[in-house]
Design goal:
Helix content is 81%, strand content 0%. The protein is built from twelve helices and no strands. The longest helix has 37 residues. It is globular and about 55 Å long. The protein starts with a helix and ends with a helix. By secondary structure, the chain is mainly α. α4 runs parallel beside α12.
C-alpha cells in the first residue's frame, strides 16, 4: 500500500467531506447557527427522501438485504459486548460507562458514512449503505434509547418512538412501490430526486456544525476506549464478520465501511437528553472524527482492490 495510493484515496474520497464539514464547523463557530434545527430538517425530510430514492432506483436483492441487516445488527451487538467488557474491566463509573457504550455501538453511518461510500464505491454500494443506515437508525431509536434511559423508559415507549423515525416509512413505501411496480408521477419523482440530491451535502455541513459545539471531557480513559474500539477494533471485526457471512462486492464494501465509521453525532443528543456524560460523548465524536482518516484511508484502499 504505497503512499501515492493512500494520498490519492484520501484526497478523492475523504478530503471533500472534511472540507465541506470544515465549512460547517467554521460557520458554527462564527455565527449562532442552531445545529438541532438543521438536524431536524435532515432527519424528517432529507434522510428519508435519500433512503427512499436509493431503494427506488433499483430493487435490492432480498438475500443481500437480509445479509446487510444481519451484519448491521450483529456488528452493533458485538461492539456493545466488547465495550461493556472493556468498561467494566477499567471500572468506569456507570454514567461514563453508559455514555461510552452508546458512542461505541453506533457509528456515524449517515452524514459521514453515506457520502464516503458514495465517493469511494458509487451508487450501487450507496444503496446498501443506505440500508445499513436505516437499520442503524432503527436500533439507535430502540436499543440505544433503552440503554441511555437507564431504566427510565420501557420497551413499549421505545418501540412507539420508532414510529417517529421517518426513514422507516421511506423503506416501507419504497418496498411497496417496488413490489407492485408502481410508476410515480413525474412531479413527485422529481421532487424526491431533488431532495435526495441535496441530502448528502446537507448531512456533511451538519456534521461540521455539530462538531463546532464540542465540549471537552476529563474522562480520558472513556474517550480512549471508545475511539480505539470504533476506529481500530470495529474494522477488524467487520472484515471477519463479513467473511463469515460471505459478503462480496458492493455489499461488502458498503457494510465494512459503514461499520468502521467514528461515533455518531446523534449520540451527543441522546446523552444530553438522558443525562449521561454529554461532554464525554461529544469529545468521543470529535476526536474519533478527527482521527478517522488515518484508519479509513487504508481501509478504502483495501476494499477497493
Amino acid at each position: 500500500m504505497s503512499f501515492p495510493i493512500l494520498a490519492s484515496t484520501f484526497a478523492n474520497n475523504l478530503l471533500p467531506i472534511l472540507i465541506l464539514s470544515g465549512a460547517g464547523f467554521t460557520l458554527g463557530k462564527l455565527l449562532p447557527v442552531d445545529p438541532r434545527t438543521i438536524g431536524r430538517v435532515v432527519f424528517y425530510i432529507f434522510a428519508p427522501m435519500l433512503v427512499f430514492n436509493l431503494l427506488l432506483q433499483n430493487d435490492i436483492r432480498l438475500d443481500a438485504a437480509v445479509t446487510v441487516v444481519a451484519f448491521t445488527a450483529t456488528m452493533i451487538l458485538i461492539m456493545g459486548v466488547i465495550t461493556l467488557a472493556a468498561g467494566l474491566s477499567l471500572k468506569l463509573e456507570r454514567p461514563v460507562l453508559m455514555a461510552v457504550l452508546i458512542a461505541t455501538m453506533f457509528g456515524n453511518t449517515g452524514n459521514y458514512g453515506l457520502p464516503l461510500v458514495s465517493f469511494a464505491f458509487g451508487e450501487t454500494a450507496l444503496r446498501y449503505a443506505g440500508l445499513y443506515f436505516v437499520t442503524t437508525s432503527i436500533l439507535f431509536n430502540t436499543v440505544g434509547i433503552l440503554i441511555a434511559s437507564l431504566g427510565h423508559m420501557n420497551l413499549k415507549k421505545a418501540l412507539w418512538g420508532l414510529l417517529k423515525v421517518p426513514t422507516v416509512y421511506g423503506v416501507f413505501f419504497a418496498s411497496i412501490i417496488n413490489g407492485f411496480h408502481i410508476e410515480l408521477p413525474v412531479a413527485l419523482s422529481r421532487t424526491i430526486s431533488l431532495a435526495a440530491g441535496g441530502s448528502i451535502p446537507m448531512m456533511i455541513v451538519l456534521l461540521g456544525l455539530e462538531l463546532s459545539r464540542v465540549e471537552w471531557s476529563n474522562s480520558l480513559r472513556g474517550v480512549g476506549v471508545s475511539v480505539s474500539l470504533r476506529l481500530l477494533i470495529a474494522p477488524l471485526i467487520a472484515l471477519l464478520l463479513s467473511a463469515l457471512l460471505g459478503m462480496r462486492g458492493a455489499v461488502w464494501q458498503a457494510g465494512v465501511t459503514e461499520a468502521s465509521m467514528p461515533a455518531a453525532v446523534n449520540t451527543t443528543i441522546l446523552a444530553a437528553e438522558y443525562k449521561l456524560d454529554s461532554t464525554l460523548v461529544t469529545a468521543i465524536v470529535f476526536i474519533g472524527t478527527l482521527f478517522s482518516p488515518l484508519t479509513l484511508t487504508p481501509l478504502l484502499v483495501f476494499l477497493g482492490k
